[in-house]
Amino acid sequence: MFPQRLDAPQAYGIAKAMMDGFNRHYRLFRTESARAKHRFETADWHGQQRAQRERIEFYDLRVKECVRRLEKEFCAGAQPMDVWHQVKLHYIGLLVNHHQPELAETFFNSVTTKILHRTHFHNDFIFVRPAVSTEYIENDEPAARPTYRAYYPTRDTLGDTFQAIIENFQLQREFADLPRDTACVVAAMRSRLDKVKLRTNFQVQVLTSLFFRNKGAYVVGKIINGFNEVPFALPILHDDSGRLYIDAALFGEDDMQMLFSFARAYFMVDMEVPSAYVQFLRSLMPRKPRAEIYNALGLAKQGKTLFYRDFLYHLKHSSDQFRIAPGIKGMVMLVFDLPSFPFVFKLIKDYFPHQKETTREQIKAKYLLVKQHDRVGRMADTLEYSEVAFPRDRFDDALIAEIEKFAPSQLEISDRDGDGQTEVIIKHLYIERRMIPLNIYLQEAFDTGLSDPRARQQMEHSVIEYGNAIKDLVAANIFPGDMLWKNFGVTRNGKVVFYDYDEIEYLTDCNFRRVPTPRNEEEEMSGEVWYSVGPRDVFPETFGPFLLGNDAVREVFMLHHADLLDAAFWQSHKERIQAGHMFDVFPYDTERRFGQGAAAR
Length: 601
Fold this sequence. Notes:
Blueprint: H1 9-34, H2 36-41, H3 45-55, H4 58-74, H5 81-95, H6 101-116, E1 148-151, H7 158-167, H8 178-193, E2 203-207, E3 211-213, E4 216-225, E5 228-238, E6 244-246, E7 250-251, H9 252-259, H10 274-284, H11 290-296, H12 300-316, E8 323-324, E9 333-337, E10 343-348, H13 360-372, E11 383-391, H14 397-406, E12 411-414, E13 423-433, E14 436-437, H15 438-448, H16 453-475, E15 478-479, E16 488-490, E17 496-498, E18 505-506, E19 511-512, H17 521-525, E20 537-538, H18 543-547, H19 551-561, H20 567-578, H21 596-600
Parallel strand pairs: 19-20
Antiparallel strand pairs: 1-2, 2-4, 3-4, 4-5, 5-6, 5-7, 8-9, 9-10, 10-13, 11-13, 12-13, 14-16, 15-18, 16-17
Helix pairs in contact: 1-4, 1-5, 1-6, 4-6, 7-8, 11-12, 15-16, 16-19
Keywords: ATP-binding, Cytoplasm, Glyoxylate bypass, Hydrolase, Kinase, Nucleotide-binding, Protein phosphatase, Serine/threonine-protein kinase, Transferase, Tricarboxylic acid cycle
Main location: cytoplasm
Subcellular location: Cytoplasm
């Protein structure tokens, strides 16, 4: 029960120190995000990627700093529980008029659980639900930027309006031909506006900060006309001469979903009021969970908090059971799911078959690598949790037996809270969005029969997308390691995404070789590998027998991706990356490009 009086003198000091810790964190986070504009203007692509990677670590560093301060100044861990109840009430008071209250609540949760050693979310000392509303927050200071700006063009002034929109971002880099680019944008819009009556409220709303990622800057907004709203994004890139150009015009929710995909690196955006950005983006992508939007903005801890709240809400309003996930079982990860929930839960097994020479720490390092790396739309983001409690009665007995067999160290079944409810507590797990395993997706096409045009199209699309996924990973300096079909999944919009990370390596750490020519008939007829193989040696021509056993699949693969079986393809990419080249991987179909970059060259 919360106290009726705030009479502990140290409670306010602890709350204030925690708020100071959060404010320092967000100030540093926002400063690093704002610097993305300068890195874009100066074409510091490696610096941009480095900053994206390092910013992920900011949060945990600030939490540790805050915990150390609270222990040093207040002996916080030794304070009685009634003091901690008062700390929370003081903290809620400090959230009034705060511009990032939801993030500050999550920071409080992180610090408090570390100090009190409350190992999972069921306790009275954290914000299980938000205490402060994030609606209608604005910075009212005279010099503050609004969340978005509204422009009111006519049909005749659309080009001038979009030129003003771009110029208002004050990019310190010359455009090759901005009037040409905005004319292309307006031409792309014509299909949506031709023969459409422009209503009284016709306007364009644009978020006031650019979205930076890798080598691109994105203008994000929406066109409003009557009851219709059309989301849009305009990617701005550098041409070979160092001048800027608008590369494409992306329209509609599907385009925005691809741009903000869970399989891409996080954006850098300078936001005073992040909840206002999330609210605006949610109006563009109403089907995208708020948790994923926070993740896309680099606020991954807030994403985790919201995801867990959504998960608890789903548990309360569902009755199906957790089960072993369908599909081929992995040798390293034990995977389970809840059929009604669109995510899978993955935990590392306690032991692996002899052919898997790895450790728990090495696997966790691979997942961290993926978290920090540019995922180029081809590697699923993961949420990492510790000490997660599930209701025991929702677990299928076969699943419990599976965990007891393969990962007993990760399992506790108890009433740790003392509330009379037995829980399954998983010590460490990863959570990923559920996809259709590519091998199952292909098998569905085969089961229907390739004489059916839709089944053949599904097969061909799968094989082409599979090769495209590997090539995008190669461009991002990633060698997937285990390239079997079962380690890739198909998303809602048909993209093929890689999700098995225990064997990934940097491409530049691998040695790509051709299989040596046999020196005699004995070597040629040998069923064993008769040549020396180093620990990082890769022989691409040997991929074929494992991947292309089906004739129809082989035909499509060889037509579109035969180069993946040639060591020269891999080696040439490796050498260019080692020379400092960053390949372009576009978060939209290349057919959508205006061709300005080529024209400007």
